[in-house]
Amino acid sequence: MLKTKTVRYTGENGDWSVEINAKLTGFEGSHSIKIRYKGTGTVERADYRIFPDDYEGGYPDFDKKGNYYWECRDCGYYDQKDELLFFIVWKERGTSDEKVGFLDLKRSR
């Protein structure tokens, strides 16, 4: 039987709430990322990076509540750090300016 190890990172600020759940079963790592927009506008586009591993992604659209969920199997496992830095750049519908946010994601298990 393969041993399973899990870890969760969470963080939030005035605009965003982020949760990363990672799982390692045997040698296969997977993770999911939940992003929730807490601001008042509608997100048209967003791009993010997670450091120190420099993992990046982007989303062309969110659901009507400002949520996005992404899951990846056999694509890596976060567990080496007690804290990750989540960097996001986004644009709200009806505005011309991009906004920038940083979140410290704390390891919780």
Residue stretches low in confidence (pLDDT < 50, at least 5 long) are: none
Count of strand segments = 8
Give the quaternary arrangement of the chains: single chain
Instruction: Tell me the structural class.
Output: mainly beta
Distance between the termini: 22 Å
Give the overall shape, derived from the CA principal axes.
Answer: elongated
Our Rg estimate from Cα atoms comes to 15 Å
User: Given the structure, what is the number of helices?
Assistant: 0
Mean pLDDT: 85
Question: Which terms would index this structure?
Answer:
109 residues; eight-stranded antiparallel β-sheet; mainly beta
Describe the structure.
An eight-stranded antiparallel β-sheet has the order 5-4-7-8-1-2-3-6, with no helix packed on it. It starts with a strand and ends with a strand. The protein is elongated. It contains no helices and eight strands. With 109 residues, it is an all-beta fold. The mean pLDDT is 85. The chain has strands spanning 4-12, 16-25, 28-37, 43-51, 55-59, 67-73, 83-92, 98-107. β4 and β5 (55-59) form a beta hairpin. 0% of the residues lie in helices and 64% in strands.
Describe this structure in a few short sentences:
By secondary structure, this protein is an all-beta fold. The protein has strands at residues 4-12, 16-25, 28-37, 43-51, 55-59, 67-73, 83-92, 98-107.
List the helices and strands and how they pair.
Blueprint lengths: L3 E9 L3 E10 L2 E10 L5 E9 L3 E5 L7 E7 L9 E10 L5 E10 L2
Antiparallel strand pairs: 1-2, 1-8, 2-3, 3-6, 4-5, 4-7, 7-8
